Structure formats: structure tokens, C-alpha cells
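ok, trying the design again with the full structure, not the truncated one.
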């Protein structure tokens, strides 16, 4: 018991924990803000959809004969194909963004608790942090699919996640 009380945290672990506090704290704030942004955007979009239903489109009849407009009807699907399905991805993000944000906020809190435990040199904190971080990489894939945009976003996030997991893992020998 006295050994635990006198055990000194290495400087490297201290620096990692401080960076972990900053990263997980920012993640909590960003995900809560994203949750409210998605909710507001969905409310606005829903209101616009309702307004569009009542619009008079009778004045648009006869536009198919306009000069230079041949082939425009397939432009949207051709652009979607060319962008690698970005439209489908954005539709999934709009539909599920609030859910993903709130799940990631909760996981960020778990990761923060893990960092706090590692600050106290507890190995349990490493496992809580690691589990939460890995789940935060997987959750968007579950909700958005494995498209090009999702994989690109995963790759960027995974670099920092793996780096911090490895760096915290190197310090496991200093934790009990």
C-alpha cells in the first residue's frame, strides 16, 4: 500500500496524460456541439422540406426543350458516381450524425476516465481508454458504412488513436 502511495509517475506518462486530458476534453465538447448542430440542421431541413411540398412547380413545365440542356437529367447521378458515392455518405451522415455524436461523446467521457486512472498510474485506465478509442473508430463505420469518405476519415483518426495507444502502452510498466 505504501509502495503505491510513494510511486512516482514518470514525466513521459505525465505529458501523455496532459495531452490525453486535452484531446478527450476537446472530443467531448466537439461531439456535444456536433450533436446540437445535427439536431438544428435536421430541424431546418425538415422545415424546408415541408415548405417545398407546397410550392407551385407548374412554371417549370416545358423546360426540357431548352437549348443546351440535353443530358442534364443524368448529371446528378453521374456526379454522384464520379464522387465515389459522396452523396450517399452525406445522406447517412445527415441521418445518423446526431446519434454518432452522442455515442462518441459518451465514449470520450470513458476515455477521459481512463486517462484520469492512468494519471493515478492504474492499468485499468489504459484498457478503458483503449476500448473507448477503438470503439470511436468503429462507430462511424457502423452508421455510415465503409465508403471512401468513411475510410478516409477513419484513416486520419486512426493514426493519432494508434499512436496514443502505443505510447500509453509503453508506460504500462509504470502502472499497477
Amino acid at each position: 500500500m505504501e509502495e503505491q502511495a510513494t510511486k512516482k509517475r514518470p514525466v513521459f506518462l505525465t505529458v501523455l496524460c496532459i495531452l490525453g486530458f486535452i484531446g478527450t476534453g476537446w472530443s467531448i465538447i466537439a461531439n456535444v456541439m456536433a450533436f446540437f448542430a445535427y439536431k438544428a440542421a435536421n430541424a431546418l431541413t425538415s422545415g424546408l422540406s415541408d415548405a417545398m411540398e407546397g410550392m407551385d412547380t407548374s412554371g417549370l413545365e416545358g423546360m426540357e426543350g431548352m437549348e443546351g440542356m440535353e443530358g442534364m437529367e443524368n448529371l446528378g447521378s453521374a456526379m454522384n458516381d464520379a464522387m465515389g458515392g459522396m452523396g450517399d455518405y452525406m445522406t447517412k451522415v445527415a441521418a445518423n450524425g446526431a446519434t454518432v455524436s452522442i455515442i462518441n461523446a459518451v465514449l470520450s467521457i470513458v476515455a477521459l476516465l481512463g486517462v484520469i486512472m492512468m494519471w493515478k498510474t492504474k492499468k485499468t485506465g489504459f484498457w478503458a481508454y483503449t476500448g473507448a478509442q477503438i470503439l470511436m473508430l468503429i462507430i462511424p463505420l457502423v452508421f455510415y458504412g465503409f465508403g471512401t469518405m468513411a475510410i478516409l476519415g477513419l484513416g486520419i483518426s486512426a493514426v493519432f488513436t494508434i499512436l496514443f495507444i502505443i505510447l500509453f502502452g509503453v508506460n504500462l510498466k509504470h502502472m499497477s
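Keeping the full-length input from now on. The radius of gyration is 24 Å.
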